[in-house]
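User: I'm putting together notes for a lab meeting next week and I want to include a structural view of one of the chains we've been expressing. I don't have a solved structure, so I'd like a prediction I can at least talk through. The sequence is below, exactly as it appears in our construct file.
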Amino acid sequence: MKGIFHITIIFLFCCCFFDPGAEAARFYIWTDENGVKHISETPPEEDVGEVDSVKYKAPPPVSPQIPEPPETKSSVSEVTIKGNQVLVPVIIGYGGKKIDVTLLLDTGASITVLHENVVEKLKLKNTRDEKVQVAGGQMINARFARLDYLKSGPATVKNIDVSIIENKGSIPFDGLLGMNFLRHFKYDINFKDQSISWEK
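Assistant: Thanks for the context. Below is the predicted structure for the 200-residue chain, given as structure tokens.
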């Protein structure tokens, strides 16, 4: 989908979990002619101009005890749809705490992204800083962490990795709901009813 996500920091993180001794994976990020951002394990097949890449090795789990999210019988989540943006209500849990956020559904993002100001109240431990290169060649620090769970309606993924960025500007969501969550489910977006049906 085409999601508009205006940020000044561009970075990349893999969508899979790794053993501590696993080799670092390389991922690629670029923007196509329509202004849509892509994050992929493979470089673009066509010439799209400047392509950034970064290697990253996932951190180990940060919380040995995972609180269970409450069960729900519903298979549908209500969402807000604005133009081509699908804004999904999500619960993120860590260390016995949970907060409600709104994430932009983005099938072009390999990993779920959260804004720094949103996760401050969770007091994340054992986060990992990585140097990544952004457009123009500048090196910046990016933070990565593993949550106990991420939940939208009946759809829950435990021990999910997220990347954390500083957001600049005013946008109506708290980050991106990426493919390391979405790939676990079959889902159908009902634009008329503004809802998502989830199926494991």
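A couple of points you could mention at the meeting. Confidence is low (pLDDT under 50) at residues 1-22. The helical segments are 116-119, 179-182.

User: Perfect, that's what I needed.
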